[in-house]
Amino acid sequence: MNPVAAVKGSVLDLAPVVPVVVVEDIDHAIPLARALVAGGLPAIEVTLRTPVALDAIRAIADGVPDAVVGAGTVISARNVADSVDAGARFLVSPGWTPTLLDAMKASGVPFLPGVSTTSEVVALLEEGVEEMKFFPAEAAGGTAYLKSLAGPLPQARFCPTGGISAASAPAYLGLTNVGCVGGSWMLPADAVAAKDWARVESLAREAAALR
C-alpha cells in the first residue's frame, strides 16, 4: 500500500462537492473513482457501510493516485485505525463523542466530525476544531440553520451532507460558512449497476462546476 499522502490545505477546499460513495461491489471501486476524478471531484468519501468498504478505500488509494480518498460513517476508534491503515486521507463522522474525537485527532489525517446542533458546534470549537460535517443537513434545518450559525459562530466551517441534490447544492455553496457539500446524486444507482462510468463522469463534471 502506498503511504498516506498529506492533504494540502483543507478538505473543505478540495472541490465544491465531495461524493458520498457506498461501494457494494469491490470491482466498482477503481473505475468509479476514476470517473469522479476525471469529472473534477478528487475528494471521495467511501462510507463504512458495506463489508467491502475498507477494501474499496485501499483499492482507490493504491490504484487512483489523483483521488483523495477518505472514510465516512466513522463512528469508533477502531473505524479510525482501520480506515487510516487502508489508506484513507481524511475521516468523516455522522456525529462525535469525546472518545471518537480523540481518536480522530490522533490519526494524523484531517477529519470532519458531524454536528447538527449549536451546542455541538460550540463544543467542537472548544476543542480547537473549526471544520465540521453538518448532518443530516436537510432534516436538521438546511441552509436557514447554517446561515443563522454564521453570525455568532463565524469561525466554524461546514460540509453539509444529507438530502442535498444538484438543485439544492448551490444554495448551500453560497453560504459564507460552507466550504463544500457532500452528496451522491452524481452516482445514480442505475448508472453504477450498469457500469456507465461515462455518465458518472458527466454528472461529476456538472457537480464540479457548481461553484
TrEMBL record:
Pathway: Carbohydrate acid metabolism; 2-dehydro-3-deoxy-D-gluconate degradation; D-glyceraldehyde 3-phosphate and pyruvate from 2-dehydro-3-deoxy-D-gluconate: step 2/2. The keyword Lyase applies. PROSITE patterns: ALDOLASE_KDPG_KHG_1 (PS00159), ALDOLASE_KDPG_KHG_2 (PS00160). Its EC number is 4.1.2.14. It catalyses: 2-dehydro-3-deoxy-6-phospho-D-gluconate = D-glyceraldehyde 3-phosphate + pyruvate. It holds the Pfam family Aldolase. SUPFAM superfamilies: Aldolase (SSF51569). Keywords: Carbohydrate metabolism, Lyase, Schiff base. It is an enzyme of class 4 (lyase). Belongs to the KHG/KDPG aldolase family. This is 2-dehydro-3-deoxy-phosphogluconate aldolase. It comes from Streptomyces lasiicapitis.
